[in-house]
Design a protein that fits this description.
Number of helices: 10
Number of domains: 3
Number of strands: 38
Largest sheet: 6 strands, antiparallel
CATH superfamily of the largest domain: YVTN repeat-like/Quinoprotein amine dehydrogenase
Strand content: 25-35%
Oligomer: single chain
CATH topology of the largest domain: Methylamine Dehydrogenase, Chain H
Shape: flat
């Protein structure tokens, strides 16, 4: 069947205000292949894949577009169901890739399908479609200036994509524009004037003149198959020609007759004959044996001479004779293996009990040896637990071991309360202001706000995402990228987020939707920024790749100047293994910069110069240098001034004084929930500690 309408396609690719004379890497137009699924034969697919967040290699967008076409034409059913299936497949592949820990990629995509005079458009991410049909202009989304509607989450950030789909009618002369989110900067009337140009080349040139810096666009005009392209475009095959060729490409194949070939008897296989003789001998032996046993039993039991004789075929007897001893052997092997497993478990339990007996006999006056003995007992108990889970003897021994070690190492056990579990998230940063707890989901580059209950141990309502603090959001004409960290500006009373492109977004807590944004200077020189904080409205960025702490001075809330280096001279530290930092805001340490390293070292600097600092008073078996901490929180409230350090390797939270003296070591009953411990904050008045681990946010009471 020939298509009622065909498409003339033009592309526009502008980067940095310069036109790139090539097709955008994620643009594709494809008619149904010869092996398309049922119902797809007359469809024409248009695809435009666009970058979202950090840019990926060009081949990534090309492969995404190719995979989209392959999946669509391989899926049967309606057009809408095939489009959804295609987008779900792309999203699943990308989401699984990002969840694997490899370099994350995201993409926005807009697709269109032409079937006869019907047009179906589907979009995911920051994309848009403009259709001019019958003198009227239609758009998807309906309001191109509505940022919330335009900036949908891109592919790869959610397990199920948010798809917007719409159907249109088209006819001869209808034009469709598939474009990125830069269309929101233009007036709809100007776009309409560009789309009525004499041909696609002029229309794309008119559209280019309206774009300020960059864009990717695909402009399509629907025409009957007989129309000749009025502009120099790449000409494909007409659907009428294809239909004619397919009709003529069905040759009649004469039936093939096979000559009669006499069958040649197969030569016996000598190996097979050998095994047949072996099995025959075994069958004869066991048959003779059971026959003799049967005759003996018959004589002993007085079997009558005229009793009927039951006879079985040779095949049944051979199978019985062969499989009966084999079954006996298998039963013996299984019983033997089961006995070995039981013996191994019992032996393991005996060794664990012996280790516990040795540990009990040691004097508590030698804590090093006692801790080592009970640690060895704990390892043996864990080994036995893998052989048989839930054994009561092991459970009692495990409880005893844990209690003794906690007492010897001054560990305080707490009960963990789950405040929230965010879907498909990885919470890497927490920020507490009053009853508002902010959490940064680095996987989706999205900030949530949780409203705490009056007791501090509950959450009122559900966590709310901050729309203007997410990847792909547009604030004051700036697009938010991958967010590095979140912080708080005490001077302006605003929550702030900073992305890798230098986009700083600030939102007042009471009016969280009324945010402003600005691009700070020299962000392109950052190599690996890992943490951000504000002090006296000045912005500090810890860039371990550049081995520097950048300081941006505030001028009326603006950061228009270039940054200055906080560290310098001969005392400049090596920051390559730094994981976090904080600036004291109170007391005699006010203005001091504390930097934490992955080896457990915490340094203190004032005005860039090193100050003395060291840990002290840690009990035997507790050593922050071997705990591999990956974050800390400075609570400089006069109520309860302290440091809190987190160690995911041992699921522990250490508390020290501002001078580094040991206060407490906290662990929770549900240690497995803190396997990926990532951040900590504390509330001094209510004595509550908040933790993030994986996609969960938790809390426990200090006392």
């Amino acid at each position: 069947m020939a298509f009622e309408l065909e498409a003339l396609v033009g592309h526009l690719f502008v980067v940095g205000g310069r036109v790139i004379k090539t097709t955008p890497p994620g643009a594709l137009c494809e008619v149904a292949p010869k092996k398309a699924a049922r119902g797809r034969e007359t469809d024409t697919l248009f695809v435009l894949v666009l970058a979202s967040g950090s840019n990926a290699p060009v081949t990534f967008y090309e492969q995404m577009a190719t995979l989209a076409a392959e999946r669509y034409f391989a899926t049967g059913g309606s057009v809408t169901s095939a489009l959804r299936e295609m987008l779900n497949t792309l999203n699943n592949n990308l989401f699984e890739h990002n969840a694997s820990g490899r370099k994350p990629y995201e993409a926005s995509i807009i697709t269109a399908v032409l079937r006869n005079t019907e047009l179906y458009v589907a979009r995911v991410g920051a994309t848009a479609a403009v259709l001019r049909h019958g003198g009227n202009l239609s758009t998807l989304p309906e309001n191109l200036n509505d940022e919330e509607a335009l900036f949908l989450p891109p592919l790869g950030v959610r397990p199920i994509p948010e798809v917007q789909l719409k159907r249109f009618d088209v006819d001869n002369g209808s034009r469709l524009l598939l474009v990125d989110n830069n269309v929101s900067e233009l007036k709809l009337d100007n776009i309409s004037q560009a789309m009525v140009a004499s041909n696609l080349e002029v229309a794309l040139e008119d559209y280019r003149l309206m774009v300020t810096s960059q864009t990717q666009a695909m402009l399509i005009e629907f025409v009957p198959p007989e129309v000749t392209a009025p502009m120099p475009v790449v000409v494909g095959e007409s659907s009428k020609v294809i239909a004619s060729e397919l009709a003529n490409a069905k040759p009649v194949t004469p039936p093939i007759t096979k000559p009669d070939v006499p069958k040649v008897p197969k030569k016996p296989n000598p190996v097979l004959m050998f095994f047949k003789r072996i099995f025959s001998g075994i069958a004869w032996f066991w048959g003779s044996f059971f026959t003799a046993i049967g005759q003996l039993l018959g004589r002993l039991l007085g079997r009558s001479a005229d009793a009927p004789t039951v006879r079985y075929s040779a095949g049944v007897l051979s199978a019985l004779v062969f499989f009966l001893p084999l079954g006996v052997v298998m039963i013996v092997v299984v019983a033997w293996a089961a006995g070995i497993g039981e013996t191994r478990f019992e032996e393991c339990v005996r060794q664990a009990q012996d280790a516990a007996s040795i540990a009990r006999s040691l004097s508590t006056g030698n804590p090093t040896s006692t801790i080592a003995a009970w640690t060895a007992t704990q390892l043996k108990v864990n080994e036995c637990d893998t052989l048989r889970v839930g054994d009561p003897t092991l459970a009692a021994l495990k409880t005893e071991t844990l209690q003794v070690l906690d007492r010897l190492q001054s560990v305080e056990r707490r009960t963990l309360v789950t405040l929230a579990v965010l879907p498909n998230a990885n919470i890497t940063s927490l920020l507490l202001r009053g009853l508002d707890l902010y959490a940064l989901d680095s996987t989706n580059s999205l900030v949530y706000r949780l409203t705490l209950g009056a007791d501090g141990m509950s959450v009122a309502g559900t966590p709310q995402p901050i729309i203007n603090m997410r990847r792909g959001a547009s604030v004051d004409g700036l697009t938010v990228g991958n967010i590095i960290d979140i912080t708080y500006d005490d001077q302006l009373n605003t929550v702030a987020s900073l992305d890798t492109n230098g986009t700083l977004v600030r939102c007042p807590p009471r009016f969280i939707m009324q945010c402003d944004a600005q691009r700070i200077q020299a962000s392109e020189t950052w190599r690996n920024p890992v943490a951000v904080t504000m002090w006296q409205s000045n912005l500090y960025v810890l860039d371990v790749g550049s081995n520097q702490l950048w300081r941006y001075s505030s001028s009326g809330g603006n950061y228009s100047g270039v940054p200055t280096e906080y560290f310098g001279g001969a005392t400049r530290p090596d920051l390559t293994s730094a994981v976090d930092f904080a600036i004291s805001t109170a007391g005699n340490t006010r203005g001091s910069v504390y930097t934490l390293y992955s080896n457990g070292v915490l340094t203190r600097h004032f005005s860039g110069e090193p100050q003395s600092f060291g840990f002290a008073g840690f009990p035997e078996g507790q050593n922050i240098s071997t705990a591999s901490p990956n974050g800390f929180f400075l609570n400089d409230s006069p109520i309860d001034t302290a440091f809190f350090f987190i160690s995911p390797s041992i699921r522990a939270i250490y508390e020290t004084s501002i001078a580094g003296s040991f206060i407490a070591s906290y662990r929770v009953d549900q240690e497995n929930m803190l396997a990926v411990l990532s951040d900590v904050v504390a509330e001094p008045s209510q004595q509550v500690v908040y933790l993030s681990s994986g996609n969960g946010i938790f809390a426990f009471k200090k006392n």
